[in-house]
Amino acid sequence: MSTTMIPHPLDNLSADEIRRATAIIRKERSQDDSFIFNSMVLKEPSKDLMMSFLGWDTSSPKPTTIEREAFVVLQDRPSGLVHEIVVSLTQNKITTWIKKQGVQPTLHTGEMLEAEEILIKDERVIAECRKLGITDMSQVFVDPWGVGYHESIKGKRLMQALVYMRTSPDDNQYAHPLDFNPLYDVNEKKVVDIIVAKRRHSKFERPTIPLENHHFLPEHLGEENLRQDLKPLQIIQPEGVSFTIRGQQLDWQKWNMHLSFNYREGLVINNVNYRDMDNTLRPMFYRVSLAEMVVPYANPYKPYNHKMAFDVGEYGLGNLTNSLELGCDCVGSIYYMDAILSDMKGEPWIIPKAICIHEEDTGLLFKHTDYRTGKAHSARSRRLVISHIVTAANYDYGLYYYFYQDGTFQYEVKATGELNTSVLAVDEDAAPYGTMVAPQVDAQHHQHLFSMRIDPMVDGRHNSVAETDVLPSPHPVGHPDNMIGNAFSPHSKIFNTTEEAQTNASLENHRTWKIINENKIHPYAKQPVGFKLHTPNTPPLLAKPGSIAYERARFASKTLWVTPYHPDQLFPGGFYCYQSEPSDNLGLPQWTKQVKNVRNTDIVLWLTFGITHIPRVEDFPIMPVEMCGWSAKAANFFIGNPGIDLPAGDKKSSKSAYAPADAKSCCGKTNL
């Protein structure tokens, strides 16, 4: 990312800072090179200090300098000992060094690439491939997955390998799954076991490999088979974009925010604020990020019952981020930011064009026609889009932050890519735990459950959360207060404790949640100012309590948790969730063991949303986008519609095809 000479305290580490931190650590371990750099990230300054720096807390003077620190995780090989190190880049020295026994940090992309290279050369893997008729190992490809949890092998850094073949170098490997999973020791770099999936309700001991190709790349489909009737659709902004970027700070319309990026969460949005119509700068959110996700699969039989990927904590969204292409991933007038991470040697690893920033037209913001006079007035809405796209083996996730001109903030996930597949014998059926999307190709049922960490500061640092159900009147038809039976009303309660604030969505009650500031009462509504959370995609975690998936992903067992702010509580499944024990109760279950106050204090919300995916044949060979997400909409926060000052829609500026040269406003007469 672009940086200024003096970085903002929340700017992620630069390439130079990564090199400096690495050099300082290597100097301390100059006699020993048997380790890798698992991760390196900015150690964010304290929130108290940042509130003064950002100007939200004026009780103390704004600090003139803030120490730059790197938080580094090292792994020894082959012992697996983990080191947590804090390096002061301001003082050029190590300030803390802690050794951690019995934990497994996030898999580094380098470890996964290294694993595939070793696995396809392993004699046991080669022998299994021969049993299936494969003699050319250049056809074999391996997706390294986290093992989830292993019941008997303890103390090792394990990885399971999902094995496929290709009929050509860029073939769709998920059309040709194999029936065995090697278990791999990451630190010792060797295969420790191979699990062959047992056939169920089949006369065959081993299946044949499905060899029919199911391509989606245009060069395989053939240009003559692609649609020929598409006309150009162009997005142009002849006067440029409406946003400005200063280092990693961004201004758009009345919005202001800071963008950062790290190996685990990927894109992080900080210090979100909005300039009201009276020119008052109003804070909304201190920090927002996708903090965890879990993808538990439904098949209960080995080796498939170990498929429960924690894509944030086990792999890192930043590590999996794509380099984007203009016209393919983003269209229009685009501003790109690079991401800078560290490789296993502690050297800067740059992902070019990792973050895409652009504007989109989103249709009407508002409109009204006076049916008496025929006069209409409408304003078109546009939004600012800040996004990145990650590839987690077979799946691709587009992750989008949207900011609208009426003060609405939205987050959306677009899931696409390829289904994770397993092989069936010719006489087997995929039911009841999967769908046969092609002959002998089983796409197993699964869920995608995302946990958003929302650190609010709605008109100040002390906030509360209210839950609202909209219910019909308790009075029967004919009652004086419900004479014709049409009455209904919202019923709200404010959470007082962490125990109360563990709650689930309720479609039948039209349940919503509102982040409120009880110290700021709206002059018209006579209610606390706030933002309402809209959560249309809230499937429950379907793994049963007591199951490995449920106990390791307890954060997904509730739609909403609220906790008091704590600087070390960033990841709801725990910092070291890789191979976590089900009994560990890491993250939210641990943080909420003691009942704590969450009313009118500094709080954090943890919002679960997602998709229950019962695969369709139409999802194969490549899956059309499936969307889920949430939004925060102002609720008695502004004095009125904050977008009312937008100019009316203009036919000429929107380049409508039939707009005359002298076209002006969309306001005017309309025929009714």
TrEMBL record:
Task: Provide the GO MF annotations for this entry.
Answer: copper ion binding; primary methylamine oxidase activity; quinone binding
If you read the UniProt record, what top EC class would you report for this enzyme, in one word? oxidoreductase
Q: Which reaction does it catalyse?
A: a primary methyl amine + O2 + H2O = an aldehyde + H2O2 + NH4(+)
Q: Where is the active site?
A: 311, 395
What cofactor does this protein call for? Zn(2+); Cu cation; Mn(2+)
Copper amine oxidase N3-terminal domain residues: 105-200
| Coiled-coil features, chain-numbered ranges | none
Pfam families reported in the protein's UniProt record: Cu_amine_oxid, Cu_amine_oxidN2, Cu_amine_oxidN3
Q: What is its EC number?
A: 1.4.3.-
Database matches in SUPFAM superfamilies = Amine oxidase catalytic domain, Amine oxidase N-terminal region
Task: Answer whether the UniProt record assigns the keyword Manganese to this protein.
Answer: yes
Domain of life, per UniProt, equals Eukaryota
* Domain (Copper amine oxidase catalytic): residue spans on this chain: 233-643
| Single GO BP term | amine metabolic process
Q: Which InterPro entries match?
A: Cu_Am_Ox_Cu-bd, Cu_Am_ox_TPQ-bd, Cu_amine_oxidase, Cu_amine_oxidase_C, Cu_amine_oxidase_C_sf, Cu_amine_oxidase_N-reg, Cu_amine_oxidase_N2, Cu_amine_oxidase_N3
Task: Cite the NCBIfam families for this sequence.
Answer: PRK11504.1 (NF008559)
Provide the assembly information: Homodimer.
Q: What is this protein called?
A: Amine oxidase
What species does this protein belong to? Circinella minor
